[in-house]
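$ ./design --mode recover --in tokens.txt
reading tokens...
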């Protein structure tokens, strides 16, 4: 199938991405969330085919052999994540555009593959201190995982200038407005 447009969003944890993605999907009904495949266990409340396509390692490796992925990665030790070609095609067939919400390496891989058809957006917290504060307030991390997430964020920041657009999520209303504007402008191009 001929590729159509794709919106790629990436952001370190603590940058406020989840809220912005929800708002973007509400504001742009022509977008549809692209469901990734992964081999980690579903968390409480997560559903196969709604949150992820949950596969075991053997199934995932078979899909790799079949060249079923646009990109895939071992994001955590032994845990694979990937974007299925069939998922992008499913959304294009609906007459919509996929919104791909993945990490920096996956985002750059998709953008390299579809340089003209994709818009890549990096969402940044105003500073590492603010990002750290948000993670502390969220209360989901212990001291070790908090530091891991902060250092991943510092590393991911070094890739920000390889994205088409950087949005600094200082004020949620302003960041939402900017995000919707750049996406709508790209979709109308
Ligand atoms: P979680 O396990 O918390 O749902 O996601 C862990 C990480 O995997 C996040 O950084 C998320 O962005 C990334 N991720 C989710 N789906 C994909 C995917 O399809 N490809 C890649 N490369 N990373 C993904």
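writing sequence...
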């Amino acid at each position: 199938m001929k590729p159509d447009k794709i919106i790629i969003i990436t952001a370190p944890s603590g940058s406020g991405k989840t809220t912005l993605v929800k708002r973007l999907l509400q504001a742009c009904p022509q977008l549809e969330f692209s469901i990734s495949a992964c081999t980690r266990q579903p968390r409480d409340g997560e559903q196969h085919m709604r949150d992820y396509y949950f596969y075991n390692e053997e199934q995932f490796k078979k899909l790799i052999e079949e060249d079923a992925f646009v990109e895939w990665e071992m994001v955590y030790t032994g845990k694979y994540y990937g974007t299925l070609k069939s998922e992008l095609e499913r959304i294009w067939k609906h007459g919509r555009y996929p919104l791909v919400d993945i990490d920096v390496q996956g985002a750059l891989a998709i953008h390299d593959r579809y340089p003209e058809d994709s818009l890549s957006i990096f969402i940044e917290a105003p500073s590492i201190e603010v990002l750290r504060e948000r993670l502390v307030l969220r209360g989901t991390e212990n001291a070790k995982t908090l530091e891991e997430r902060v250092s991943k964020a510092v590393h991911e920041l070094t890739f920000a200038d390889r994205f088409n657009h950087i949005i600094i999520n200082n004020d949620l209303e302003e960041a939402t407005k900017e995000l919707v504007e750049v996406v709508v402008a790209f979709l109308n191009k």
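exit 0
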